[in-house]
Amino acid sequence: MGKIIMQQFITLDGVMQAPGDLYEFEYGGWQRSYVGEEHLALIVEQAHAVEALLLGRKTYESFAATWPSATGMQGLADRMNGMSKFVASRTLNHADWNTTIIHGDAAEEAAKLKQELKGDLLVVGSGDLAQTLMKHHLIDEYRLWVHPVILGRGQRLFREGSEKATMRLMDVKTLRSGVSIHIYQPEIGN
Question: In which residue ranges of the chain is pLDDT below 70?
Fold first, then answer.
């Protein structure tokens, strides 16, 4: 049985929106100045440690428009292009790029995938899907890459009205760029 790991790039004020996308909103691309060799090496390591990606439609479409033509990046492009992807969508009818579309209830299907896959599923971005998975207590591990920037607006991972939850800190790593990676596991019985 695999785990669902949520890996999110967030700001100090919790914004997760458009870390690399310059066009999504006025502060889009806010993460780009923090990405260096050390940052990339850890992303590559984490990508190789999972079996598949679990994405929402918007993140999938953004990734599918970029990654298939990408090369190099310490092997990240090959890994992203070679790994299986599952995309939760009510509207997407066709997907390439080693992708299976999940048309049914996203929480139910994610729970089934956890049971069926031997390896872990990695959720990146996918704000609406992240909310659904958190609401149904399907996240086994949170990897929050906290960037030393405050945007003051934008979509947040933990939104107003989110359910109370207690987390156990499993590890913290600080990069030379000032980014800190916090790894949490939800406490059972919150």
Answer: 189-190
